[in-house]
Amino acid sequence: MEEALKKWNFEGVDGSVDDMERASAYTVRGVVCSIMDSLNGDDMRTVVRLGHGDPSNFPSFRTCTVAEDAIVDALRSAKYNHYSVKNGILPARRAMAEYLSRDLPYKLSPDDVYLTVGCEQAIDVILTVLSRPAANVLLPRPGFPLYEARAACCSLEVRHYNLLPGRDWEVDLEAVEALSDENTVAIVIINPGNPCGSVYKHQHLEKVTKMARKLRILVIADEVYNHLTFGTTPFVPMGVFGSTVPVITLGSISKRWFVPGWRLGWLVTSDPNGILKKSGVAKNIMGYLYVSANPATFIQVKLNLSFLEDIDDDMDFCIKLAKEESVIVLPGVALGLKNWIRITFAIEPSTLEDGFGRIKHFSLRHKKKQ
């Protein structure tokens, strides 16, 4: 009995198990799985996954044949059937350096490039390198929750700055300056945005660069490159910050790109009162949804719960939508922004139209009676 009660001799960094549990309490995958548990097994309709973040599951977003053929050729060559170097093979780093140098006033060498297995490993490496006693990092709200969990493991303090929905989710520069101090080591900029779907204008990125130089902090540019393996060409130009401030760029296979404008038009068909506003920063949909302009693959949508009955918050909205209509959307609470939802457009057109139709029926069913 005494042996069975003996405590295991490991715990979190500096005993910070509670901090890590809080940081990982909401993960995108975990929240989506909990919503999936609410699906009605008696509903024979196909589940519409508008909370899904990986477009490669759908035929219309299939990886281009150029990229597929390159992988097959590399495999058949038998030149790469061995352990790789930790920072990426030389041909890949050389090609990346040449490509990035097109937009820079100087030429990068392969030694300036460090390749990782996706952005998750890049986040692990960078935050681990930046961690030191009393250091803090600035993260966007809303944002991708992996940063918080990894920062907790590194004992890095996290400070959140807000993105401004009324200004196409731009960085609140004044708030960033107020949050930063002598222990601030870096600011994370996600562009194109997840979950917001926004793409920053060059002028705004210049302002971020000037601010970072003034504060003497590193910019971690979490930039997901459009159509890296989707579409007719394997690569497209990458947005690069100016050379006057240190920048670490995280790149991965694209899961965000501009969505044709006609897809947004489907939201009109989901609007029972025809009140979709075509102009201005905000668009009102179904009386209780608010969408910022210029949506890309993802859009972040605000819920106006005063128009609805029997809906407590964004999580309740998503659970009941799944149960009643077999439609999955992601609640904003999973991304640090309560009473918003994230919807993806990276899905088959017919399925997208079906999903918006079901959201319309759901909204009419829960619409508050006058």
From TrEMBL:
Needed co-factor(s): pyridoxal 5'-phosphate
Matches recorded under CDD domains: AAT_like (cd00609)
Q: Mind telling me what this protein is named?
A: Tyrosine aminotransferase-like
Which gene is annotated as encoding this protein in its UniProt record?
LOC107417412
- Domain Aminotransferase class I/classII large stretches: 46-271, 306-356
From what organism does this protein derive?
A: Ziziphus jujuba (Chinese jujube)
| UniProt keywords, alphabetically | Pyridoxal phosphate
Which Pfam family, any one of them, does this sequence belong to? Aminotran_1_2
Instruction: Please report which protein family the annotation says this sequence is part of.
Output: Belongs to the class-I pyridoxal-phosphate-dependent aminotransferase family.
What InterPro entries does this protein map onto? Aminotransferase_I/II_large, PyrdxlP-dep_Trfase, PyrdxlP-dep_Trfase_major, PyrdxlP-dep_Trfase_small, TyrNic_aminoTrfase
